[in-house]
Design a protein that fits this description.
This protein is of the alpha+beta class. The chain has helices at residues 15-25, 29-33, 53-66, and strands at residues 41-45, 48-51, 74-75, 79-81, 84-90, 96-102.
């Protein structure tokens, strides 16, 4: 299925965590999926991965349906090299997320 996002592309990697959390809180699964490239890989816990937008969409749709809400954490400055950025956030529970983003 080919779904078009109404969201503009994200240009600043520092915006990714904030946008993911705000879209999740709004129940905007398509907006969450729009943050990922078509061949993205999302670690979903327990050694499992959602690979590609359809699998990521399925995962986030299930997560949003539970009513669970993401928390914003302490985002570290990105490490950037050309069009790539490594971002990380320490969540309130102590877990750390790490993302590789492309401009």
């Amino acid at each position: 299925m080919n779904r078009k996002s109404t969201h503009p592309p994200v240009r600043d990697p520092q915006d990714l965590a904030r946008l993911l959390v705000s879209r999740e809180r709004a129940g905007d699964v398509e907006g969450m999926v729009a943050l990922y490239e078509s061949d993205a890989v999302l670690a979903i816990g327990g050694g499992q991965f959602a690979i590609g937008r359809e699998a990521i969409r399925t995962f986030y749709a299930g997560l949003v349906a539970t009513g669970r809400k993401f928390d914003l954490g302490d985002q570290r400055p990105p490490t950037m090299n050309g069009d790539l950025a490594l971002t990380s956030t320490r969540l309130p529970n102590g877990a750390v997320t790490v993302e590789i983003a492309r401009r």
